[in-house]
């Protein structure tokens, strides 16, 4: 198995869009942003829920139905969408 880590760019954006994720319902501060997000980092990173950990989710759930590379690619597609949302929001704040 590959030991390449998931190439997270630490934009923090996935932690700003947690509404609708049942496992994170208790962490939503009310606007979809996680209460544990500080800047762009997770303040409970070492103890974050499984749903927040790409490696754990692959190992425990998705390894049964796809390869690690496929799972990473799917996650990266979501990251791209989220990073575009961040870019657009920041442009909006500047403009
Ligand atoms: S959206 Fe993707 S790149 Fe950004 S912090 Fe989350 S996992 Fe990392
Ligand atoms: S617990 Fe941490 S990794 Fe999970 S959504 Fe909140 S800030 Fe992000």
Notable traits:
about 100 residues; mainly alpha; 2 helices; 2 strands; about 5% strand; binds iron/sulfur cluster
Spatial sequence of strands, sheet with the most strands: 1-2
Q: Give the CA-based shape.
A: globular
User: Approximately what portion of the residues adopt beta-strand conformation?
Assistant: under 5%
Bound molecules: iron/sulfur cluster
Distance between the termini: 46 Å
User: From the helix content, strand content and strand pairing, which structural class follows?
Assistant: mainly alpha
Helix share of residues? 25-40%
Quote the average pLDDT: 95
Domain unit count = 1
* Number of helices in the DSSP assignment: 2
Any low-confidence stretches, pLDDT <50, length ≥5?
A: none
Give the number of DSSP strands. Answer: 2
The topology string of helices and strands comes to EEHH
If you had to describe this structure to a student in words, what would you say it looks like?
- The chain is mostly helical and 95 residues long.
- It has one domain (13-94).
- The protein contains two helices and two strands; from the N terminus they run ββαα.
- It has helices at 54-60, 68-94; strands at 37-38, 41-42.
- A two-stranded antiparallel ribbon has the order 1-2.
- Strand 1 and strand 2 form a beta hairpin.
- The radius of gyration is 14 Å and the shape is globular.
- The model has no long low-confidence stretch (mean pLDDT 95).
- The structure holds iron/sulfur cluster (2 copies).
